[in-house]
Amino acid sequence: MTEKTINGIPQIGFGSGGFKGDDCYNVVGWALAAGYRHIDTAQRYKNEAEVGRAIANSGIARDEIFITTKIHEIHYGVGELLRATEQSLEKLGGPVDLLLLHWPSTKGVEAAEQYIGELCQIFDDGLAKRIGLSNFTIDLLDEAKQVFGTRKIAANQCEIHAYMQNSKLTAHCKSLDIPMIAFCPMGRGMLADEPILAEIGKNHRANATQIALAYLLNLGHIVIPSSSSRQRIIANFAARNIELNADEMQQIKALDRGLRVATIDWDIGWDEKTNIERLARFVK
């Protein structure tokens, strides 16, 4: 891997959520051909087999590709996490580079010591090179850290984009040296029409989407953009070459409006106030 990494994780990856079957196989193949070396998938996406097949057929050595997958929260029961992980690894062709818990326990049904403890055991057994969390708030993160003990929380994957910057959580993770992986980094397409991003883009011969990604990359976040268009997949990858100045960064920082586009049916006590008037309810 020659691309910039954050604690060993390639800073720009391709998000496979929303793609299934041949569509998934194709977009992952396009991403790898474009230069991406970090592919993000999840049990919830029901596409791990296609991701694994695309990687196996890419002609790129497995040790040059970083694979992230996430365990569905329905598998947090006693003994279930290991079985679910083994199923994912079979589809993906072996141990993954990063294994995350996709969401905290549904309504706190399972105790953190139990399901996070099982994740730690999976790491200890060598089934994942790194383990981490996804959608964990500050309080839940601190609780998880106690269970991790001396093991490192490799990342916390959360919604972060110009309209939802999650500043409290990102600051807390930074204080703990936990990288943030930003999903929905383009706000599910909303940022493509943001005038300020488009105006800044003129200085860099870039479009608004590329500037939205560059902003997060310049902050030191890991991003996993997604697209069904081969041209946009290539364009998104080019955002890694854009350096924004302090004034441009400040302009984008001011766009934060607490607009969350990915949520769930139970309240986990978000750290940032959510703009519910414009909330688009999706489950990532």
Question: What is the CA–CA distance across the termini?
Answer: 27 Å
> Order of helices and strands, N to C?
EEEHEHEHEHEHEHEHHEHH
User: CATH top level?
Assistant: Alpha Beta
CATH architectural category: Alpha-Beta Barrel
Number of helices: 10
InterPro entries: AKR, Aldo/ket_reductase_CS, NAD(P)_OxRdtase_dom_sf, NADP_OxRdtase_dom
Active site: 45
Site (Lowers pKa of active site Tyr): 70
Domain NADP-dependent oxidoreductase: 12-256
Description:
- With 284 residues, the protein is an alpha/beta fold.
- The relative contact order is 0.14.
- The longest helix is centred in the first third of the chain and has 14 residues, at 21-34.
- Helix 6 (167-175) links the parallel strand 8 and strand 9 (180-183).
- The chain is built from ten helices and ten strands.
- The chain has helices at residues 21-34, 48-56, 80-92, 112-124, 138-148, 167-175, 195-202, 208-218, 230-238, 246-253, and strands at 5-6, 9-10, 14-15, 38-40, 66-71, 98-101, 131-134, 156-159, 180-183, 222-223.
- It has one domain (5-278): NADP-dependent oxidoreductase domain (TIM Barrel, Alpha-Beta Barrel).
- It has an eight-stranded parallel β-sheet with strand order 3-4-5-6-7-8-9-10. Strands 1-2 form a two-stranded antiparallel sheet.
- Helix 1 packs across helix 2 (48-56), helix 1 runs parallel beside helix 9 (230-238) and helix 4 (112-124) crosses helix 5.
- Mean pLDDT is 93; it is low at 276-284.
